[in-house]
Amino acid sequence: MEKNLKIKKTGLYTQAGNLNKAEEPEVAFNKTVRPGPSVKDFTYSEFKKLTEKTPFTQAEWAAMLQLSERTLQRYAKNNSSFAPINAERFVHINQVLTRAKKVFGSIDVFYNWIHSNPPMLEGDLSFSSLTSFEGIQKVLTQLGRIEHGILA
Q: Which of 40, 75, 99, 145 could disulfide-pair with 80, CB 3.0 to 4.6 Å?
């Protein structure tokens, strides 16, 4: 015996009423992302203003920014903008210098400290630590330890 099955044909889903914008669900993939601090158009004159207060030489700045001295000289001559990656590196180094001034009281003391190859738990620090992102993080970690009285 066969049963007669009724098959319902359904149309497209229709909304019963209109939704406001506030009632609509937020779509996760359509969010706007705000960029971090802008390093666009960071010129040599801005760089020079900030670096005049530090004892680092032009050769040391070139090493920290991963540029050649000749490139820094060309930026100085034309007051050119730094490449975004170099400008971002400068922002990181400036964070280190701000923290170092807070911890040591002056940038000159930090300069002498970083050149004395201070020990830390993960190994010795040196000026070359400021030439890589990992090294900068280690310097910031050690400055935090000094600030909180953990010298090991």
A: 75
The range of the structural domain enclosing residue 47 comes to 36-147
Q: Count the neighbouring beta carbons within 10 Å of the beta carbon of residue 90.
A: 20
Q: How confident is the model at residue 29 (pLDDT cuts 50, 70, 90)?
A: very low
Domain assignment of residue 63, yes or no = yes
**Exposure string over 42-69, b if 16+ CB within 10 A, otherwise e:** bebeebeeebeebebeeebbbbbbebee
CB atoms within 10 A of CB 138: 19
Are 140 and 129 in contact, with CB atoms under 8 Å apart?
no
Task: Report the chain's terminal Cα–Cα distance, integer Å.
Answer: 87
User: Residue 43 domain-assigned?
Assistant: yes
Number of independent structural domains in the chain: 1
State which H helix or E strand residue 123 sits in.
strand 123-124
Partner residues linked to 120 by β-bridges: 123
Is residue 3, in this structure, part of any structural domain at all? no
In a domain, 21, yes or no: no
Reported as a single tens digit per residue, the pLDDT across 56-104 is 999 999 999 999 999 999 999 998 889 889 999 999 999 999 999 999 9
